[in-house]
């Protein structure tokens, strides 16, 4: 697990809310400090779907592409959120240079804060990597590979990260 600081918050947020920065990623959860606290679970509510819709779904989570317009509508407006926490994930088959048999998903936690722990105004956007495994493993190769892939992914997208 590694933490990174996003230096260009404006470009990152534009890519998150308006662009394709996370196209095809699974949306796991959102917590946002707006005029009230908003919490969204990305797990699909299967009983809500028709049988056809259930059969057409391959995963258990919404894709970012599906929820992005709704999140954008919540966040964009006159006020900057006091906090924002998003968890995104990609399936193990998308990371080909690490063993995938024990990995459930590669996750990225996005943390936006407008104040620090003492309540002082300070805008900060951090990314924290994580690997969700199916079973316990002493092999930390998936973690190391994911920790290297994240800054590489964002560099390709035109965003630089600093290690926290």
Characterize the structure shown.
- This protein has 164 residues and is an alpha+beta fold.
- The protein has one domain (3-163).
- It is built from four helices and seven strands.
- It has a seven-stranded antiparallel β-sheet with strand order 3-2-4-5-6-1-7.
- Strand 2 (26-33) and strand 3 (37-41) form a beta hairpin.
- The longest helix has 16 residues, at 141-156.
- The N and C termini lie close together (11 Å).
Write a compact overview of the structure shown.
The chain has 164 residues and is of the alpha+beta class.
Keywords:
alpha+beta; seven-stranded antiparallel β-sheet; globular
What is the C-alpha radius of gyration, as a whole number of Å?
17 Å
Overall geometry comes to globular
Q: Tell me the major beta sheet.
A: 7 strands, antiparallel
Estimate the strand proportion: 25-35%
> How many individual β-strands?
7
| Series of H and E elements | EHEEHHEEEHE
Low-pLDDT stretches: none
> What spatial order of strands do you see in the largest sheet?
3-2-4-5-6-1-7
Please work out how many helical segments DSSP would assign: 4
Please bin the fraction of helical residues.
25-40%
What is the CA–CA distance across the termini? 11 Å
Number of domains: 1
Q: Return the structural class.
A: alpha+beta
Multimeric state? single chain
Output mean pLDDT: 91
